[in-house]
């Protein structure tokens, strides 16, 4: 036989073979391929809608046996339909997105990477144009990974429709996402305002990284702010876990070019494989005080979840947050470069191992850290002496362990329930502490009072894994203001200060050579006087009868002694009472009410409650009370000022006598 005849015979054989191949249906082709037998058997043994399509115009993506073995999810009709498209689609006609036959028609995302075709994360190994038994064109694509669908648990029809990342967040309990929950992250988004993150519910091509609940077992969910949320969204890019690349490019997150707010935080992200596990890495290329520059790696625990606006990856920890604990920020002895912002306070704190241990074990605390500058109002030796003399009390005022941590916009502070218009919590260290720390908002700034020292927060909400740090401009518990200064600044003492301006009553309270103890009625107490004794209130505040004002204020004041609340109570128990500048001694008693120790001041049927005690100043103590110690008869229009010894002269005389007796 000639060579030409042999060649002709071979071409004829190939032509006949190709015709036979082209005439085969998808099922016939699959049955020939043993390495795809599991998916083939699934198609054959399951009754369902897919059978009607197998003899029609259809495109099928068939995963290999290895892919089927590695998939532990449910292999049911939804699984089958998610591997089918209801038309004949060649590679050239695919575009960037197909929709599967499953209810709701979830997307199958199409990518061409180098010379390889990918559908979602699955690589197309072979492509076969087929033909059904009725002569209808079909396409079979053999793939190396399953196309896992997102399926509602109860399979309600409405839950299949138009599933976006926002639906997965707000109704995560409705969907099969293995045993994972993303409720904590979803709740945090609700608190921040889901409407601020429209991408979750908008159409587009996004990659979403959603931390699972276990990510917050040792991390306070409040550390997630709006910037961090936007760093979990990558726009205009589908970041599947496959294919693996040697060099993975980072992509800008939504936070990289965000124009919202004044923050310059810029974050990029990349997906990569480490030790055969899919990972995501955030790269904070431009940091802020809240979020430092650097990288955070998180494991992708459930990958490549297709939604109508992109794909979702569930991750085991949030991105961006380099979650040092409070202890690591403040108590851990640093090697190399110190955290300069907290240096001076940390040096003192590290001398208190008991408090550091408490900080280490807390779950959601607030630490008030004075700036380095705040320690400079005294010399180093003077500050050391002050703090050493009362270290536990002073340091304890800076540690608030009443979860949840108190943020600058905390509703407990911005909308306080207390009549004082302030929010307060008891100090927890040392255990026997009777101090309280007070919080209020003024002109958009968070203010704090501890041990009589009012401080302003100059840097708020520095996140930690188990709490929050606020940087403040003063050291709590170390007096630096006179009683005059404190009256002038404190929002609960304004009316008393205004009254004391009459005939310079307040001026004596600037003198640091004299010690005072002052029971100061709150503004609310004066408001009550206005309701009960309207005429008397008008007389006092109109400014023409300063001697009446002085008489009332002197009934609340002791000159020549700096007495704590315990000192006052002890004096009453000894029978002396609190000897004030004018009038009979006041009696102070302490009793338990509703599990809380309450101190009251009594005088002639008037009972006032001490609402803030031991406000220490450089020249004495202030104790705030909720009633004015006065009767209606104490204010009259009679009696000239000439019959009354001016208060300032009397106080100077008292000081002179006490000096001579020393």
Strand order of the largest sheet: 2-1-7-6-5-4-3
User: Helical region count?
Assistant: 23
Structural class: alpha+beta
- What does the average pLDDT come to? 88
Instruction: Name the CATH class of the largest domain.
Output: Mainly Beta
CATH superfamily of the largest domain: FAS1 domain
Number of strands: 27
- When the domains are counted, the total is 4
Describe the main β-sheet briefly: 7 strands, mixed
Q: Report Rg.
A: 38 Å
Contiguous runs where pLDDT drops below 50 for at least 5 residues: 6-22, 639-655
What portion of residues belong to β-strands?
A: 25-35%
Amino- and carboxy-terminal Cα gap: 139 Å
Which architecture of the largest domain would the CATH scheme give at its second level? Roll
Describe the protein in words:
Helix 17 (483-489) crosses helix 18 (494-500) and helix 19 packs across helix 20 (534-542). This protein folds into 4 domains: 19-143, FAS1 domain; 157-315, FAS1 domain; 326-472, FAS1 domain, CATH 2.30.180.10; 489-661, FAS1 domain (Roll). The protein is elongated, with a radius of gyration of 38 Å. The chain is of the alpha+beta class and 662 residues long. The protein has a 7-stranded mixed beta sheet with strand order 2-1-7-6-5-4-3. Strands 9-8-14-13-12-11-10 form a 7-stranded mixed beta sheet, with no helix packed on it. It has a 7-stranded mixed beta sheet with strand order 16-15-21-20-19-18-17. 27% of the residues lie in helices and 26% in strands.
């Amino acid at each position: 036989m000639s060579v030409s005849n042999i060649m002709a015979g071979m071409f004829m054989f190939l032509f006949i073979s190709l015709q036979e191949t082209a005439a085969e249906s998808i099922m016939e082709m699959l049955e020939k391929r043993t390495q795809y037998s599991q998916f083939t058997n699934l198609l054959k043994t399951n009754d369902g809608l897919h059978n009607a399509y197998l003899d029609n115009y259809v495109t099928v993506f068939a995963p290999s046996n290895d892919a089927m073995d590695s998939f532990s999810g449910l292999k049911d009709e939804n699984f089958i339909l998610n591997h089918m498209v209801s038309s004949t689609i060649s590679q050239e006609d695919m575009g960037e997105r197909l929709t599967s036959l499953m209810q709701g028609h979830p997307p199958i995302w199409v990518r061409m990477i180098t010379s390889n075709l990918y559908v979602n994360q699955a690589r197309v190994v072979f492509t076969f144009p087929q033909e059904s038994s009725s002569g209808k064109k079909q396409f079979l694509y053999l793939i190396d990974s399953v196309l896992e669908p997102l399926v509602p648990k109860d399979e309600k029809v409405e839950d299949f429709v138009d599933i976006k990342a926002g639906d997965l967040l707000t109704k995560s309990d409705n969907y099969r996402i293995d045993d994972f929950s993303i409720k904590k992250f979803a709740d945090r988004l609700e608190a921040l305002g889901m409407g601020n993150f429209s991408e979750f519910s908008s159409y587009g091509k996004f990659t979403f990284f959603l931390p699972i609940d276990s990510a917050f077992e040792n991390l306070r969910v409040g550390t997630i702010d709006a910037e961090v949320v936007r760093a979990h969204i990558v726009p205009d890019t589908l970041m599947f876990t496959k294919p693996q690349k040697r060099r993975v490019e980072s992509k800008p997150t939504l936070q990289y070019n965000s124009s919202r707010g004044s923050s310059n935080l810029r974050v990029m992200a990349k997906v990569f494989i480490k030790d055969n596990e899919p990972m995501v890495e955030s790269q904070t290329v431009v940091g802020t005080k809240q979020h430092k520059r650097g990288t955070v790696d998180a494991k992708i625990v459930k990958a490549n979840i297709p939604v109508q606006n992109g794909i979702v990856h569930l991750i085991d920890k949030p991105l961006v947050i380099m979650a040092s604990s409070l202890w690591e920020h403040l108590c851990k002895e640093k090697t190399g470069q110190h955290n300069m912002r907290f240096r001076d306070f940390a040096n003192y704190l590290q001398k208190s191992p008991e408090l550091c241990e408490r900080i280490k074990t807390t779950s959601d605390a607030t630490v008030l850290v004075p700036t380095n500058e705040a320690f400079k109002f005294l010399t180093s030796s003077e500050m050391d002496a002050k703090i050493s003399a009362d270290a536990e009390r002073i340091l304890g005022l800076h540690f608030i362990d009443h979860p949840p941590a108190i943020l600058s916009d905390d509703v407990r502070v911005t909308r306080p329930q207390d009549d004082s218009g302030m929010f307060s919590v008891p100090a927890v260290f040392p255990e026997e502490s009777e101090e309280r720390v007070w919080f209020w908002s003024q002109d958009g700034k968070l203010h704090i009072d501890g041990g009589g020292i009012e401080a302003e927060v100059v840097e708020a909400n520095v996140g930690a894994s188990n709490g929050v740090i606020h940087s403040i401009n003063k050291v709590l518990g170390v007096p630096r203001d006179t009683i005059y200064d404190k009256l002038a600044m404190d929002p609960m003492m304004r009316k008393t200060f205004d009254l004391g301006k009459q005939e310079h009553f307040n001026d004596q309270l600037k003198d640091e050579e004299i010690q005072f103890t002052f029971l100061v009625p709150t503004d609310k107490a004066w408001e009550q006087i206005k309701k009960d004794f309207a005429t008397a209130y008008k007389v006092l505040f109109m400014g023409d009868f300063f001697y009446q004002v002085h008489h009332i204020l002197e009934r609340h004041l002791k000159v020549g002694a700096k007495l704590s609340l315990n000192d006052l109570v002890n004096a009453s128990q000894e029978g002396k009472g609190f000897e004030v500048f004018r009038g009979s001694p006041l009696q102070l008693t302490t009793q338990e009410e509703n599990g809380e120790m309450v101190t009251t001041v009594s005088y002639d049927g008037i009972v006032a409650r001490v609402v803030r005690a031991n406000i220490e100043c450089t020249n004495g103590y202030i104790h705030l009370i909720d009633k004015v110690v006065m009767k209606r008869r104490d204010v009259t229009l009679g009696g000239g000022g000439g019959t009354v010894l001016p208060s300032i002269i009397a106080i100077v005389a008292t000081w002179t006598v006490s000096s001579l007796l020393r």
